[in-house]
Amino acid sequence: MKQKRSLLLVAGGLISLVVSIFAVSSVPLNATDAPSCDATSICNLESVLTLKAAVSAVPKPSIATPDWMKPVATFTYSVETRGEITANLAEFKQQANETLNDQRGWAALGVRFSEVSSGGDFTLVLAEASWVPSFSPSVCSTTYSCRVGRYVIINQDRWLGATPSWNNASGSLRDYRHMVINHETGHWLGHDHATCPGPGQKAAVMQQQSIDLQGCAFNAWPLPSELWTNQL
Amino acid sequence: MKKHFSRPTFSRKTKLIILIVLLFVISVGVASYLFAQNVEKDARKSLVADSDKVSSLTSALNLKLADTAISGSDKISLIKNYTADLTTVANQLCNQQKGHIYSSLISTLDRCESATAKLREAIATSSKINDYLVSEAALASLIPKEQANSTFSQSYETWNGALTAIEAIDTPNELQDQKTALVKAITDYRDAWKALVDADSAKNETAFTSAQELLLKNHQILIDSAQNTAIPLNEMTTKLSAQLHAYFEESKAP
């Protein structure tokens, strides 16, 4: 019985061996395999190829910041609130920063505006409407935004709803927010109120567009003639 | 009247002449056969000798291709010379035997013709490999090596010029896919430079920043395109190998 089992094992092993040899020898060569390097084929041609190496050697472009993008100065500002704030403060901070650093705006002077946690060159305030006059009852009202000294005060009602005249003219809320930030910061930069340069023309950003357009078209950004500051 | 047919009678002299003629014809036949056999043997030897020559030409070429001291352009010249050498061999293959008076008696001539045809197929492939490599090197030579401190405009002009030159190169079919991929990638890269130039001249920071991002992205696409496009060289060398193998088999068959 034991002998029989051994014989069976040996026979099985032999069959497996024969099958393996047959399987290995019958595997066809892949047609895309590179030919072996002998007298019946050319090999080592890859070393002659240069295109891949030439393209790979193209250096990653290193772009120098153009002079016009280099800031002449950086103005720092902090953000504060007054009263009960229902607006999204994070959105206020983000949109104000975008507006201030937009090349269509005061950033075109070559300046950067950088928010700091406290202090800074000026303070941007988002204030509940009833709190606005507290900065200066003679300058500020509960209706509009204003600037007093280092404080650039944005009236929360205007931030959330613009003005009737703006809305009636189908101006977007985002554009109103650009305009009001630019206008009040413009005061801090040294600008007084401006008048409409001519009927049908773009309004100056320092014009009181929330009150009266004087025949001008709404405009959220400083005109080229307004691009100056006495803060530098 | 009964007609009688009688066997022709030859005189002894005539018989002798017939015998001599017969002997002459047999001798000529035997001599021709032996001579043809000799020519046949020569033809076989010549076939083998020529295939040995092709072998040694191929081995010599492989040695030089493996030599790192030899430049790429010199290696391309070597392949051109190899193709020319094979052509010379093919043109001379069994030439002596082909023009022989007994050529119709030489059976090896059929093999000569067949071997020549197979060698010519290998020559055509070798020539294609050479054309491919020449065009590939020409394309590579047109890829700009960017200079440091170039202005945006200069970089744009460099890539625009390279693109025009690359498009003008006439490439063999085998290189067409690579050229198409390269032209596409370079066009996008050049256009990104143009966007940067425009943003710079407009002093538009937002456009400048996005042009800068596009430029870096398209640079990577350009690099990847070279890495990912299939190179048909292996296919061509495999084909050449099969053709040379067929030629050797024909030449060295017993």
Q: Can you give a write-up of this model?
A:
The complex is a heterodimer of chains A (232) and B (254). The radius of gyration of chain A is 37 Å and the shape is elongated. Chain A has 232 residues and is of the alpha/beta class. Chain A contains 6 helices and 5 strands; from the N terminus they run H-H-E-H-E-E-E-E-H-H-H. Residues 12-35 of chain A have low confidence and may be disordered. In chain B, helix 1 (12-66) packs parallel to helix 4, helix 4 (108-142) runs antiparallel to helix 8 and helix 6 packs antiparallel against helix 7 (205-228). In chain B, 28% of the residues are buried. Chains A and B meet through helix 2 of A and helix 1, helix 2, helix 4, helix 6 and helix 7 of B.
Determine the structural class of chain A based on helices, strands and strand pairing: alpha/beta
Number of strands of chain B: 0
Shape of chain B: rod-shaped
Please describe the biggest sheet of chain B, giving its number of strands, its sense, and whether it closes into a barrel.
none
Distance between the termini of chain B: 69 Å
CATH architecture call of the domain at 71-226 in chain A: 3-Layer(aba) Sandwich
CATH superfamily of the domain at 71-226 in chain A: Collagenase (Catalytic Domain)
Helix content range of the residues of chain B, please?
over 70%
Number of strands of chain A: 5
Helix and strand sequence of chain B: HHHHHHHH
**CATH hierarchy, class of the domain at 71-226 in chain A:** Alpha Beta
